[in-house]
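Tokens help. Consider this.
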Amino acid sequence: MREKVSIYIPTKNRISLLKRAIESVHRQTYKNIELIVVDDGSNDGTRKYLLEAQKNNRLKAILQPESFGACVARNTAINNSTGHFITGLDDDDYFLSKDRITTFVEQWHLLTKGESKIAGLYDSAKINTPQGIIDSHTDETSSYKKLRQKNNIGNQVFAPKSHYIKSGNFDPSMPAWQDWDLWLRMSNMFGEFININHFSYMVDETHEFNRITQKSEDKIRIALMRIHSKMGNVSLREKSSLLAAALAYPQVQPRLSDLVILIITGRLYTAIKATKKIITPSI
């Protein structure tokens, strides 16, 4: 029998989107799947829906007594999972391909033959934006060195449960970039991440609910500070890359010190773009 794969979905008050996400899991051709949905204090009917779905053996529902945040929800699912492999799905996203999990399992066994050491797998994604659908996270691999400059993986990986646990799971103290932070720790401990280049995941940015892009500037700045601290000795180029990632959010206004670092490291386009945010701030 093929190894069991546990899929976690954290959710809160997005029942219509959650149903779409769950259906995309049930359409998978790989059948040895454990679906765990952790509700983070919903009051929109999600809990009733999950309990009914659990009765019909469609998923395992975990209902948190109150809202502790998505990080805690993900960790709760991981710690209660029974699969050999784990991957995730955000409740407002969905799997595009029916063979996403099958491909992950097959590629894992193909790539780990012999003495090959990898942290996990990921996949290029489609992002549905108000301006149209774009391709994202298309790099062939992601190493610890690359991850020290940007998250070129995205928000989901496929890896053995032990890789999540030994790396410390998601850090609830991170107000943003929790996935990036964990991928850094996993790659530092276990090696590279490999892209299966299947475009089997859709990130949906067209709905009315909040995503990280709408988090406050303070939260993005705190995440930037904490990821600096966790990385240890950060080079000027790495610092510039992390700043560029933070400034990519419309709500993050550049500081003079940010612009100096960008210019010194040759990121003139990023510096000019950031300066325009000061001249013509978003309303």
Observations:
- The first strand starts at residue 5 and ends at 11.
